Amino acid sequence: MSAHRLSSGGLVDRSRSLGFSFDGLDLKGYEGDTLASALLANDQLLVGRSFKYHRPRGIVTAGSAEPNALVMIGKGARTEPNTRATVAELYNGLVATSQNRWPSLKYDIGSLNSLLSPFLGAGFYYKTFMWPAAFWEKVYEPFIRRAAGLGKAVMEADPDRYEKAWAHCDLLVVGAGPAGLMAALTAARAGLRVILADEGFRLGGSLLSERVSIGGTAPSTFVETILSELAGFPWVTLMPRTTVFGWYDDNVFGAVEKVQKHIALPSLDLPVERLWRIVARRAIMATGAEERPLVFGGNDRPGVMTAGAGRTYLNRYGVAVGRKVAVFTNGGSGYQAARDLAAQGIDVAAVIDGRPAAGDNLPNGIRLIQGGGVVKVKGRHRVGGLLVERSGFEESIDCDALLMSGGWSPIIHLACQRGAKPYWSDEKQAFLAPDVGRQLLPAGSASGLSGIGACLRDGVAKALSALASLDLTATSPDVPDVEGEYDASFAPLWYVPGARDKAFVDFQNDVHVKDLGLAQREGFGHIEHTKRYTTSGMATDQGKLGNVNATGIIAGMKGVSPAEIGVTTFRPFYTPVSFGAMAGTSRGEHSRPVRRSPLHGWAKKNGAVFVEAGLWHRSSWFPRDGEKGWRQSVDREVMNARTNVGLCDVSTLGKIEVFGNDAAEFLNRIYSNAFLKLPVGRARYGLMLREDGIVYDDGTTSRLAENHFFVTTTTAYAAEVMTHMEYCAQVLWPDLDVRFVSSSDQWAQMSLVGPKARLVLQQVVEDDVSNEAFPFLAVREVTLKGGLRARLFRISFSGELAYELAVPAGYGEAVADALMEAGRPHDICAYGVEALNVLRIEKGHVTHNELNGTTTPDDVGLGKMFSVNKPDFIGKRLSSRFGLTAADRLQLVGLKPVDKAKEIKAGAHLLKEGAAPSMTNDQGHVTSACFSPALGHPIALALLKSGRERFGEKIVVWDKLRGEEFVAEVCSPVFIDPDSQKLHQ
Amino acid sequence: MASLIHCPHCGSRPKEEFSIRGDASLVRPSPSASDEEWHRYVHIRDNPKGRYKEHWHHAFGCRRWLVVERDNFTHEVFSVTDAAEAAKAVQA
Amino acid sequence: MNYVHRHVLEDLITGFEGSSNPHHLAVLKRPTVFSVLARPGREADARNVLANLQGVSVRISGPGEWLVVSEDVAIDSLARTLQDSGTGLFDAVDQSDGRVVLRLSGPQVRKILAKCLAVDLHADAFPVGASAATQCCHAAANLARTDQDTFELVVSRSFAGFVFEEILEMGREFAMTAGFSAG
Predict the structure, then answer these.
(1) pLDDT tens digits, residue range A500-519?
(2) Which part of the chain is the SoxA A3 domain (chain A) (predicted)?
(3) How far apart, in Å, do the first and last CA atoms of chain A sit?
(4) Are A770 and A826 in a shared domain?
(5) Of A595, A969, C44, C171, whose CA is between 20 and 30 Å from A202?
(6) How far is A335 from A272, CA to CA, in rounded Å?
């Protein structure tokens, strides 16, 4: 045993023991542990295998930058790969499994890659797996995917819930360490709405790892005092377990709260994670600093970790990382680690300082090697001693763990996520946050400060500064004195020469110093190129630990300052965010709204099969017992409407009430046909064009009163037409006196269709609906028997005598029931959108199949609806363009197969007989097709070059997709009642 | 993740409530304007980078068309006004 | 003939909640809802007229546009009142069947709504009496604060089932119950 739990101390609750397992081994930890601290307490140094070389790896950090200790947590569908053990909160029953090893963590076949490593350098994949090309998909990629990589996602659906939420505050404080706590306290006392978020499950940040005295108390006591005051303010929200991962436009922050990730069986009434969008007037980035590893031979051996991590395990979790610990440092952090270890009675093997002269003191009896460097770490699965070189002499040091410190990098990600570049400070030997304005201020060690006292004071100062920028003032809280601080200064030491083993820069991606050199030699010298070529700084940790070292090393190779090299672009997310959190509740049925017609219940009752049409669920057809397949039902519905009477739900049409003295003028300008003289009580079919002369949408518009119109749109374009009308009224013609509002949802609208429609209708409607009293295109508010008021329109999409009856939506079902009841003696039957479509194809009416964004009114046979007399309307001017008036434009025609058994399919192309299929020979295409029960054979609508001149011509219907080719006759698109006599009967 | 637009009628709202139409400087030509003018109005669009006026529609809010003047690279928003007011000013 | 009026959420609500939880979603059974559109230049006069109507709540849906909502005044009666008082000032459209009014209440109701919409509901930013047109659970909605811990949402009928289920999903954390308003 080398790593072990101390008999006392730390912030874990020793009275609450937690059982967990790692690779099947049952282990114990305490409440307050992370998985990492519990593993160390059980001397489990080896926790994973590296990405490429499958080298044994251990825990390097105590926080979210951890590159090595990635494990799978959970069982079955709840398995989550690539979880950092250093931030995973321990819970009873936690099941953890190591990754990227086979057959076991200890005996991993993949580690043979280490022997092949001379061939596995940077750019290896690009150079090796080039040819033959066919091998890529079948051989190379599967091989690489198996050999390299992190954890595996499970294939089962995630059983847990996720949520998304918005939050608003005056001040967001990111990080609850010394600077963050004081910033939050300062603003909270001034009455501001404060959110204090921290990724840790216990607020306090680095204070929880320190042994200083703050105002005479332990740091954890100091933290509790502040937190309890903050918790007493109703305007303060404390958010532990919440990582602020991104800074977005307008000072909105993205954060993910781990609500139930520390619970074995999460409650289904709560999300496991909640994604927050936090709108903050001001924010303070008190995110702390990351300790840099040193780059030396064997720096990835399990048992080597950063000095700060070693101190955190020791002071916060009561876990010593070894029994005889060596320290390798270039600054004060290593000395403090040695002092902390010594204070707990842990043997310190030696402190090796890369600097020729140290500026700090060690407790008596600890050996100091100045100007030395570790060149090799002995052992395989754990540290078994060191080889240290100083002035050309080598020395073996006996130890079972090594703490390293290569200096500190402020955590500046958030400030750099919107394009601003960090700048290099020679003084701090670090990249510092750029000035991004008053909305986001770095504070404490995130702004390059060191020392707890300095951070406490800076937290206050930055809060005051944020308040001042909101024209608010506050009183400074008293900042207590801090005793026992250490000198955290350090000297640059980017790379330790003389390495006898690989010296890793990026642990997670197995990038070592030689890879960086190769990238420079092969022309990938720019830091962004180096990243892509070597993979340094990629994957889940995005180079949190290694990037600054990589920059320092490349700078050293080129003999320039790190300022000239820079760093790669910082992008959200700071730490990985699960897809579940980003989806929130928008999964499956919840991913988009469903819209239901007011007649949905009626349709369901009548046995409808529903079809999704945009967001709507529309009744498609109404099968009856004994009918085989949808066609049989649809044929019956169509024939019944043509011979008796049918009822169809058309409630989904867009409906807009238009008012104003200029309402008629407005409609006249947005439709291609004339509306000024539409009489009150009349409906008119209208065509809207786009400004380029192409048809936009169609529908009927009724004049209900002199200055009150009722516009209908197609179901698909309801929202678009409303938006278009608003643009026209507000932007194009703001001086017109016109206003409108959608009433789409107010009305249940049903189409009563067929020769017996009037008979049925008259039984329900009080008013006279005879042909004389209520002729074709009449519109009126009517009263239903019993007193219900309704709107009645005599319009037809089917070519039959037809009415559309609109009643307030809540009465829709009852009125539809009444119509069905009244129609029973007349053999009424319900029909759906399939039959609706067949009826309109037989009549040659167009829909968006024909109004497909390429056709003009003339193309679809509606040339007479283009008013040449109106001075101006949308689309008029460009309709006269050459091209839109060409003689060989595609025009709407009908098609009948010569062999009546042949079924025409929409999408098929049209060719002259004998012509080879080609773009040049293409004559047009089929837009709509169906079996016509009225004619007894398949028919189609098509767009054909100069089509109206070609009625009677035989043309080839060519459908390569379905392997069909046969001859059809071109005919008028109106297959039934060409003189429209039925409409007026 | 988020952008906010400060609607002059509704206040600060996320971009998801809006839809963008594009260049707000276009003025619809008169019916008698030249083919070239109409062609430019309907078909020709610059693709500038930087400060730019766009029409945004507050589709989930007041349903007003707005002129949003912003830097389309940094998304810094300089002003948001009701488009009808701007249109009246142009026509006056 | 007497026609039965059906509320669109009848299929989703099993009945009147005998005992509602502190967090409750009440669905108004037969509210009266009108869209009112002011004539240009008469916005202020129109607003004044609406403000003086008895038994109604006036919600902003845009500049010069309002939703007038009432639980007490019948549709026909409000239609007449608006007709009489609106001449020359505004036009009114009955939306009572086209809109669904949902009333959310409870001490943590803001936390539930924060999962549904992006408006800042702090009492300083959105006091009692405030209203806003906004997006709620992917749908267009009108939100109003009717009391410290009570909000009303007006949504289109065809979206109502979806929004209703979404809100209950967001309310699971607080064991939110739902039922038709007893009032």
Answers:
(1) 999 999 998 889 999 999 99
(2) 501-584
(3) 100
(4) yes
(5) C171
(6) 41
Last residue of a domain, one of A839, A856, A878: A839
Interchain CB distance below 8 Å, B21 and A734: no
Which whole number is the average pLDDT over A762-769? 97
Ranges assigned E (strand) in A90-239: 94-97, 162-174, 194-197, 213-214, 236-239
Q: Which residues from chain A sit within 8 angstroms of residue B82, using beta carbons? A: 730
For residue A750, tell me if it sits in a domain.
yes
- Tokens of residue A373, six digits: 């460097």
CATH number at A961 reads 2.40.30.110
Round to whole Å and give the CA distance between A976 and A982.
10
A252-263 average pLDDT score: 96
Report the b/e string of A528-552 with b at 16+ CB within 10 A: eebbbbbbbbbbbbbbbbbbbbbbb
| CB < 8 Å to A747, chain C | 97-98
Contacts of A731 in chain B (CB under 8 A): 55, 65, 83-84, 87
Which residue, B2, B58, B67, is CA-closest to A166? Answer: B2
Domain residue ranges in chain C: 10-29+98-180, 32-94
Residue C134 at interface with chain B, using a CB cutoff of 8 Å: yes
Is there a single domain that holds both residue A14 and residue A114?
yes
CB contact under 8 A, C63 and B62: yes
DSSP conformation class of A331: B
Q: Å from B78 to nearest chain A CA?
A: 12
- A268 at B interface, C-beta within 8 A: no
How far is A429 from A443, CA to CA, in rounded Å? 18
- Select the residue from B1, B3, B4, B10 to test the C interface by mutation, using most C Cβ atoms within 10 A: B10
Contacts of B43 in chain A (CB under 8 A): 692
Q: Could you tell me if A621 and A642 lie in one domain?
A: yes
Q: Tens digits of per-residue pLDDT, A905-931?
A: 999 999 999 999 998 999 999 999 999
- Give the residue from C37, C66, C119, C138 with the most B CB atoms within 10 Å of its CB, the best one to mutate: C119
Alpha carbon distance A170, A192 (integer Å): 6
Q: Are residues A801 and A897 in the same domain?
A: no
| Among candidates C114, C157, C158 on the partner chain, residue whose Cβ is nearest the Cβ of A166 | C114
**DSSP H/E element including A890:** strand A890-897
Owning domain of residue A429 = 162-289+410-471
For residue range C67-81, what is the model confidence (pLDDT) as tens digits? 999 999 999 999 999
- What secondary structure letter does DSSP report for A424? E
Q: Does residue A979 lie in a domain region? A: yes
Residue-range domain boundaries for chain B: 4-91
User: Which among A593, A708, A809 has CB closest to C157?
Assistant: A809
| CATH number of the domain where residue A197 is located | 3.50.50.60
Nearest to C62 among B11, B12, B64 (CB): B64
Asked whether the beta carbons of residue B88 and residue A730 sit closer than 8 angstroms, the reply is: no
CA A274 to chain CA centroid, Å, is: 14
Rounded to whole angstroms, how far apart are CA atoms A675 and A673? 7
pLDDT tens readout for residues A259-297: 999 999 999 999 999 999 999 999 999 999 999 999 999
CB contact under 8 A, A730 and B65: yes
For A633, phi then psi, to 5°, come to -65, -45
Complete DSSP assignment for A42-63: TT----EE-TTT--EE----SS
Confidence of residue A850 (pLDDT cuts 50, 70, 90): very high
List CB contacts (< 8 A) between A596 and chain C: 8, 158, 161
Q: What is the pLDDT averaged over residues A297-318?
A: 98
> Which residues of chain A are within 8 Å of residue C8 when distances are taken between CB atoms?
596, 598, 809-810
Q: Evaluate if residue C53 carries a pLDDT over 80.
A: yes
* CATH architecture of the domain covering B4-91: 2-Layer Sandwich (3.30)
CATH number of C32-94: 3.30.70.3400
